[in-house]
UniProtKB/TrEMBL annotation:
InterPro entries, A to Z: AKR (IPR020471), Aldo/ket_reductase_CS (IPR018170), NAD(P)_OxRdtase_dom_sf (IPR036812), NADP_OxRdtase_dom (IPR023210)
Residue ranges occupied by any NADP-dependent oxidoreductase domain in the UniProt entry: 21-225
Entries under PROSITE patterns matching the protein: ALDOKETO_REDUCTASE_2, ALDOKETO_REDUCTASE_3
One MF term in the entry's GO annotations: oxidoreductase activity
Name by which UniProt lists this protein: NADP-dependent oxidoreductase domain-containing protein
Length: 252
């Protein structure tokens, strides 16, 4: 999945150009990466490195129009440049707004979701609307602090939560002769959620695929569901760019 622009007027020609650089005639999935629009960097000709204020905050585009952007997304499907289109980090209100005018509904909503942050209300809404959920950080992102620091931000406010060491998860893993990571992935899969764990270690990547030869019991699923901490479980609650949270469309 690729994403480039949060303004329709900056859109045209972008997808075909990026597909050319990827040496592809189309992409499988094209996402709106975030509901927040950032100011355009005229010098670089990109949204990827937005200009900053004197206080060091990113400059935001308060005129973000999700419906207009979605219409441009639909045109990419009609042009054959992508097979499916979706959103990421969108809340219920924002998805509802798109669905009211969409000719092509979002194929997926990619959000932070894992054992302690199950987003049950959003999941229920998306399931009813026919929008699949794709979970990033399905293992709780044990490397998040390092990622935040690499972006030049303090990681002091990141909630210290590690579901891989949760006693309940460890007990269930022992019972099935699986790893805690495999239990976390299997839990989401049985909830009907697609998972995209990230790893650079070949053995862990291979292990993450080894989740289809067992099934969690109803009791085990209930026990894991009860570990949800709702908003308090979000590891990505701290904005990854200073100032982005001031945008009127910043998801709650």
């Amino acid at each position: 999945a690729i994403r480039l622009s949060n303004r329709k007027k900056k859109w045209y020609g972008v997808s075909s150009s990026r597909s050319h650089h990827l040496q592809l005639s189309y992409v499988d999935l094209y996402l709106i990466h975030h509901p927040v629009g950032l100011a355009y960097n005229e010098e670089e000709g990109s949204f990827l490195n937005p200009p900053k204020t004197l206080e060091g905050k990113v400059k935001i585009d308060r005129t973000t129009d999700h419906v207009a952007i979605w219409k441009a997304m639909e045109e990419q499907v009609n042009l054959g440049l992508t097979k499916a289109i979706g959103v990421s980090n969108f809340n219920i209100r924002q998805i509802e707004r798109i669905l009211k005018s969409a000719a092509i509904p979002p194929a997926t909503n990619q959000v932070e979701m894992y054992l302690y942050c199950q987003k049950k209300e959003l999941h229920k809404f998306c399931k009813k609307a026919g929008v699949t959920i794709t979970a990033y950080f399905p293992l709780g992102s044990p490397g998040l602090e390092r990622y935040i620091k690499d972006m030049g931000r303090s990681a002091d406010d990141i909630r210290s939560l590690n579901p891989l060491e949760d006693p309940m998860v460890e007990n269930i893993a022992h019972a099935h002769k699986k790893t805690p990571a495999q239990i976390l992935l299997r839990h989401l899969l049985q909830l009907g959620v697609a998972v995209i764990p990230k790893s650079v270690t070949p053995s862990r990547i291979e292990s993450n695929f080894d989740v289809f030869d067992f099934e969690l019991s109803t009791i085990e699923m209930t026990e894991l569901n009860l570990l949800d901490k709702e908003k308090e479980g979000s590891r990505f609650a701290v904005p990854y760019m200073r100032g982005i949270e001031e945008h009127p469309e910043y998801p709650d």
